[in-house]
Amino acid sequence: MTLERAPISGAFPFRTGIYGSMTSRNMARAPMRPEPIPNAVNANPATSGHCAGARQMKGEISAISIMAIGSAEAAIGSAIVPATYRSARPIRTDQSNSLKR
Amino acid sequence: MTELGFGSRLPYGSTISPECIPIPSSIIILMIDSTHEGDTYWSYPISLTCPVIGIMVPLSQWREEPIISPACGAQTNTCDDIFQSSILLRSILRAPLSAEHFQCTEMAVTESPFFALAATLGGMFPRCASDLVTISVAPERSSLCLHPSSGCTSRDVRPSEATVKYSLLGGTSSSILVHGFPWLYGPPGGEVQPWGILNGIVESKMQNSAGISIAPVRIMAGIVFKPSLVPYHQWTPDVYEGSPTPVVAFPPVTSKVAASGLATRIFNLLSPLSGEWHLLPEILAILSTILGNLIAIAQKSMKRMLAYPPISQIGYITIGLIAGNPSGYASMLTYTLFHIFVNLGALARIALFSSRTGTDSIRDCAGSCGQDPLLALRPTLSPSPLGGFPPLSGPFGKPYSSWCGRQAGLYPLVPIGPLTSVISIYHHSKIIKLLMGERGGRKLATPRTINKRIPSLSSPHTPESLIELGTMPRVVASTTLGLTMNPVTTTARDNIPNQIFAHTATILMDFGEMSSE
């Protein structure tokens, strides 16, 4: 795999995450939809560094930091969903209109 | 440069000594809350004391040269210390606002101060972010704490909805931001240090490649969400309107200050890569200053209306950032300081006002001057400081950032300041007229006071609540800070290190040689 082809491995999860976060209508599923994007972020430096001939594995090690951030975000999303469900009846995002423009 | 050896064990004098104070404080808050039955109000004194001590540490370490920690490569200088002090100041000013809210609503007391302390700690980390990995995860550390802090304070529908919107949009934009950084890692051959990246790109002659062009666009698209630059500002009015007033100011303003501090580092890294990188932030700054003032005119809710002036203010701060010279950074720091005092003060005064009127609607506040003139005077003074009346801070901060823009050759940005000041003065004058003159508003309720009065040293009007007490320094600061602007900008300008610009100039010269070959 050459350096030009390396980011492709990260492009697919990135595309999936962006599409999911834009089209999600269920408030319980919505926090999970952008989760493939940190996967893409992890894949990108790991493959790019390997293809570019990096002497040290800094890209792979940085994936640990990104995973920590991603898991914290998932935990916060998981905490927000039950709190929202207790207070707000509608579970669909397109029915949430209490904050009017 | 002052370097620390591996034998240094004392945290004082190291790069992370200010961060060593909020960490044990937040652990203590959690331990007290988990071991104590029922509500405990220890969270407030701890969450107030910690930033007060924390702000003394960088002031006591004030020095001319940056400190480098060879163990982790973190490098800090006095410019970063000023940003960090802004975050801590923010945390100090926030503390008195929310105490009574939790007494009244009987919500859990510990959550809000803990999230605020954690967000403060997260906002302090960008100052020592000097490599790609730390820069990419630094904005997340404060954002992730700010997402739940806007919704943990009320069981109502609106805070929950605001929190969901904030966290979804914030999570997606942060992911896009973090996805931009690895594009800078691979092409230089696996480098994470900024100078290694730029040298690697120059040596491998990849400065014109598509990957290196995509990276700044992705990074900017992700970073501009946090300071809510237009068109990524959609979350700010929802958070302002949805969250309870005493707690609403903390997430957006902290996000803006932390993002401004981080953006200086990111733009220093990106500036040699593309000569046209200024275009995108210029467009965003123009859109933010204009639309932030225009959309505020159409708002009916006082809280939602207050969300838009900070959006326009971040446009002025961005002008200083794009200028890229010491004066530009000094104007950024000065305006950030004004921004903190004015916005917190505005929301504190609106909180007092709303507690008496029982509504957020602007129309319902008509004619309140006849019922309680002092109360009506408060929201009158709140947005005016940055509107443009001397000796308030606005007419000193805006011309300075416009002057920095002119000095850097950013001529489209220069007339934006005066034009938008006119719009904001018109719009604030409408509100003042409504409060003072018109009829048709609600009858003001009697003031709710807590049982224990706050003792005041010498004032004719004893503050009856912590919010009033906390508003006093903000009133003084936001109305008189304009007069003290010269020492502030001089201190900021003199302490911006020249190393940033010297090294960038070297890399720019290399780029110029490579492209001319």
Automatic annotation (TrEMBL), chain A:
Protein's organism: Selaginella moellendorffii (Spikemoss)
Region Disordered: start-end pairs: 25-52
Keyword Aminoacyl-tRNA synthetase: no
Subcellular location: Membrane
Bilayer disposition of the protein: Multi-pass membrane protein
PANTHER family (alphabetical): NADH-UBIQUINONE OXIDOREDUCTASE CHAIN 4L, NADH-UBIQUINONE OXIDOREDUCTASE SUBUNIT ND4L
GO molecular function, one term: quinone binding
Protein name (database record): NADh dehydrogenase subunit 4L
Keywords: Membrane, NADP, Plastid, Plastoquinone, Quinone, Transmembrane, Transmembrane helix, Transport
InterPro entries in the record: NADH_UbQ_OxRdtase_chain4L/K, NUOK/Mnh_C1-like
GO biological process: ATP synthesis coupled electron transport
Family the UniProt entry places it in: Belongs to the complex I subunit 4L family.
Gene Ontology CC, one term: NADH dehydrogenase complex
TrEMBL record, chain B:
Boundaries of every NAD(P)H-quinone oxidoreductase subunit 2 N-terminal domain copy: 9-100
GO biological process, one term: respiratory electron transport chain
Record-level GO cellular component terms: respiratory chain complex I
Keyword Transmembrane appears in the UniProt entry: yes
Compartment annotation: Membrane
Swiss-Prot/TrEMBL keywords: Chloroplast, Membrane, NAD, Plastid, Thylakoid, Translocase, Transmembrane, Transmembrane helix, Transport
Domain named NADH:quinone oxidoreductase/Mrp antiporter transmembrane: residues: 129-424
Main localisation: membrane
Superkingdom to which the source organism belongs: Eukaryota
InterPro entries reported for this sequence: ND/Mrp_TM, Ndh2_N
Topology of the protein relative to the lipid bilayer: Multi-pass membrane protein
Keyword Transmembrane found: yes
Segments crossing the lipid bilayer: 277-298, 305-323, 329-352
Listed PANTHER family: NADH DEHYDROGENASE
Name this protein carries in UniProt: NADH dehydrogenase subunit 2
Native source species: Selaginella moellendorffii (Spikemoss)
